[in-house]
Amino acid sequence: MKNKKIGLFMFVMFLFLAFNFTTFGASDKNTLIVALGAEPKSMDPSASNDVPSHCVYLHIYDTLLQRDQEGNLIPGLAESWEQPDPLTLILHLRKGVKFHNGEEFTARDVVFTLNRDKVAPAVMTFFKDIDQVEALDDYTVKITTKKPFGPLLGYLAHKSGSIVSEKALKDAGDNYAHHPIGTGPYIFESWRSGDRVVLKANPDYFGGKPAIENLVFRVITEGTNRTIALETKEVDISYDIEPMDAQFIKQNPDLVLKERASIGINYLGFNNKKPPFDKKEVRQAIAYAIDMPSIIEAVYMGGAKIADSPVPPGVPGHIYTGKSYDYNVEKAKELLKQAGYPNGFKTKLSLNDKNVVKDVAVIIQDQLKQVEIDVEIEVMEWGAYLDKLGRGEQDLFILGWVSAPEPDVCLYALFHSSNIGSAGNRIFYQNKKVDELLDKGRTTTVQEDRDKYYAEVQEIIQEELPMYIMSYPFKNAATQKNIKNFYLDIENKHRLDRVEKE
After folding, report:
1. pLDDT of the residue at 27
2. Sign of torsion, CA 380 383 389 391?
3. Rounded distance, CA 46 to CA 121, Å?
4. Which of 97, 216, 226, 434 is disulfide-compatible with 105, CB 3.0–4.6 A?
5. Rg, the chain, Cα only
6. What parts of the chain have a pLDDT lower than 50?
7. Exposed (0-12), middle (13-18) or buried (19+): which is 69, by Cβ within 10 Å?
């Protein structure tokens, strides 16, 4: 009997806590609850380069430079900077900034972070061209490169370059990813895997204490469930609203839908090292067999545009390549015959568990049947999915890439052979000419020359088609109507420390 009473008590407490958590966001102006579509992979900035992780830990850490709402570079932990010559960057750091453990932020932490990032497989693509990082004094850092490095300033604003505390990381050891320490507007409190990450406002933040005390990120993988959580006031903000749900939110007077064109891409990836995807004709055949206008209409409901380049509009250097893959089943069959697959083949399409992605996959599966390609769909959890792609075990896969206002971000990580695997080149693509052009684009600061190199890369990619860039999706989020000062970040990594609840 005693055990039964204890069990009943525990069950009642569970219901109480569940109710308390789900209504907390609506009832408490000191708590902001945000719904994410996937769980962060890591709270260690050098361990993973994925948007769900960035969306959370950008509030824990700061970068040396930041971007404003329009994507312009502005001061972060570095108050100012100058480039005395094409190989040298001098950063002047803020004074009086403290990490969440009470340690003072100094040049030593910048040196430690960037040297670590230079060799970290997941993020080294952004930082490996740095030659030396030196502390000239406690608040001055000198960065040198062996060659001119055009994208350097932009990468110092990338979330993967978030500055970590050397002492905190060494003290925590292997546990650091679940006990992060930064200088950011929020302090890490807890991470319940598969459920939520809880942060507390940093009262000593150099940018001013956040407007809301508690910041909770809830993991709600199903898009419709994220919308229901908004409607029932379980969450205050929901990221990545499904197209169908967006129509209902627009009609709900208690909710606000925010949308903007993104600088990202959605693509169908081919594992270029695996037959039959090592043949250009097969890759092109698949592109011709996919009716993208019907997918844009049926799945995205107008919330995306058909892509024509790996560099999206809005990023400097975007060009119209002139090479498109309009729906043409007969052309697809002809190319498959040329490649030696007149009767098609069997393959597997891997993807994560987002509804939109699954809907796209089902349509692709059906359309490829028309050219005798038998597709098995494999749906995976986000972290396991990224791990599989990094190991090169996939055949076909669907993924997105969020850029920055810099063409190197769109191209170098995705297509340079030095980044094969988890660093970004998950299609396992190797092309010496593309490598050469991307290297030239990185090692010049003359914008006209950079544009020329990147234009040629885009033309090669659209012809060889190592991945089929399907669409440029619009990005969105929805909020309760009492949420103020929330804006959509150009890179889809929304900053929340100035958000208020009325």
Report:
1. 61
2. negative
3. 8
4. 97
5. 24
6. 1-25
7. exposed
365 Cβ contact partners less than 8 Å away, ≥ 6 residues apart: 349, 375, 377
Question: Which has the closest alpha carbon to 406: 451, 437, 443, 467?
Answer: 451
The per-residue pLDDT for 282 is 98
Helix orientation angle between 447-464 and 407-415, rounded to the nearest 10 degrees: 40
> Is 341 strand, coil or helix?
coil
- Predicted pLDDT of residue 209: 96
Amino acid code (one letter) for 499: V
Show the tokens assigned to 213. Answer: 């005390």
Q: Where are the alpha helices (DSSP H) in 68-207?
A: 107-117, 124-127, 152-155, 166-172
In whole angstroms, give the CA distance from residue 343 to residue 500: 59
Q: How far apart are CA 221 and CA 384, in angstroms?
A: 14
Which pLDDT does position 98 carry in this prediction? 97
Report the pLDDT value the prediction gives residue 2, as an integer from 0 to 100.
41
Query: DSSP labels for 379-435?
Result: EE-HHHHHHHHHHT--SEEEEEEE--SSHHHHHHHHH-GGGBSTTSBTT----HHHH
User: Quick one: how far is CA 190 from the chain centroid?
Assistant: 22
Residue 37 and residue 490: Cα distance in Å, rounded? 18
For 391-416, b where at least 16 C-beta lie within 10 A, e where not — what string? ebebbbbbbbbbbbbbbbbbbbbbbb
pLDDT of residue 302: 82
The predicted pLDDT at position 26 comes to 53
Q: Are 65 and 132 in contact (CB under 8 A)?
A: no
Whether residue 276 has a cis bond before it, omega within 30° of 0:
yes
Distance CA 40, CA 493 (A): 13
Tokens of 65: 């430079």
pLDDT value at position 320? 84
What values do phi and psi take at 259, rounded to 5? -135, 150
Amino acid sitting at position 264:
G
Kindly list the distances between the CA atom of residue 260 and the CA atoms of 10, 238, 313, 487, in Å, as whole numbers in the listed order. 46, 15, 13, 10
